[in-house]
Amino acid sequence: MHSFGYRANALLTFAVTILAFICAIASFSDNFSNQAPSAQIQILNINWFQKQPHGNDEVSLTMNITADLQSLFTWNTKQVFAFVAAEYETSKNTLNQVSLWDAIIPEKEEANFWIQISNKYRFIDQGHNLRGKDFNLTLHWHVMPKTGKMFADKIVMSGYRLPNAYR
Amino acid sequence: MDWQGQKVVEQLMQILLVISGVVAVVVGYATESFRAMMLIYAGGVVLATLITVPNWPFYNHHPLKWLDPSEAEKHPKPQVVAKKRFSKK
């Protein structure tokens, strides 16, 4: 501690170390938040259901997505990334997951929402297995922190079925 | 800055920074404001810098007692005797 530069350096280094500790504590505190999100998805209409020229099935649907993700936000949350995926099984793959819609929710107030849209991303199968197929619609979310660990989870909603014939 | 001052300054710096950190986390968590935590900590760092880095006069209250010049004359420094080279004849 015998010169200005020496003291300034020591202080700066220690300050940055403490900053790292603070951020770790902030991230750790996320483990104590009570999360109780809810969601519902309704398929309003199958717009069309065709076999593409390459032989793959494609579906277009209009969905009504309702969700309340407000309880996921903590003081250490920067944004929540949510997406809806259709999940089903085929003889070729045990699990097929096709992402149909996603959104970035930057604030708690926007996390309680209702939206009616057709699928943002195309629902295309690897093959032609979709006729009469039962599938789940799963709402996944990633809680992105300001600092530290990211948490991800999902709600699985089952009971959806595609028509038996192309239209 | 004298030795006593250096010791005090080092301890002060560590204590000030740790306390800023603790207060920042507690207030931030209680008010659910990440921004509050960062601002309080930044304020604490600036405060610690102002208190401990400049060479304030109150860190010099125990100056070193250098030896008095008259005392030094009574005990002269030993002279280094140059070694004589043995020249070959």
TrEMBL record, chain A:
Report the principal subcellular site: endoplasmic reticulum
- Keywords, comma-separated and alphabetical: Endoplasmic reticulum, Membrane, Signal-anchor, Transmembrane, Transmembrane helix
Name the GO terms of the biological process aspect: protein targeting to ER; signal peptide processing
Subcellular location(s): the record lists: Endoplasmic reticulum membrane
Gene Ontology, cellular component aspect: signal peptidase complex
- Per the record, the domain of life is Eukaryota
Pfam family for this entry, one: SPC22
* Membrane-related topology note: Single-pass type II membrane protein
Stated role? Essential component of the signal peptidase complex (SPC) which catalyzes the cleavage of N-terminal signal sequences from nascent proteins as they are translocated into the lumen of the endoplasmic reticulum. Essential for the SPC catalytic activity, possibly by stabilizing and positioning the active center of the complex close to the lumenal surface.
Q: Which family does it belong to?
A: Belongs to the SPCS3 family.
Its recorded name reads Signal peptidase complex subunit 3
Origin organism of this chain? Brassica carinata (Ethiopian mustard)
From TrEMBL, chain B:
GO BP terms: namely: protein targeting to ER; signal peptide processing
The record describes its membrane topology as:
Multi-pass membrane protein
Q: Which UniProt keywords apply?
A: Endoplasmic reticulum, Membrane, Transmembrane, Transmembrane helix
A cellular component term from Gene Ontology for this protein is: signal peptidase complex
- Residue ranges of the TM segments: 12-31, 38-59
Where is this gene product found?
Endoplasmic reticulum membrane
- Note down the stretches annotated as region Disordered: 70-89
Superkingdom assignment: Eukaryota
Mind telling me which InterPro entries this protein's record contains?
A: Spc1/SPCS1
User: Which family is annotated?
Assistant: Belongs to the SPCS1 family.
Annotated protein name in UniProt: Signal peptidase complex subunit 1
Q: What's the source species for this entry? A: Brassica cretica
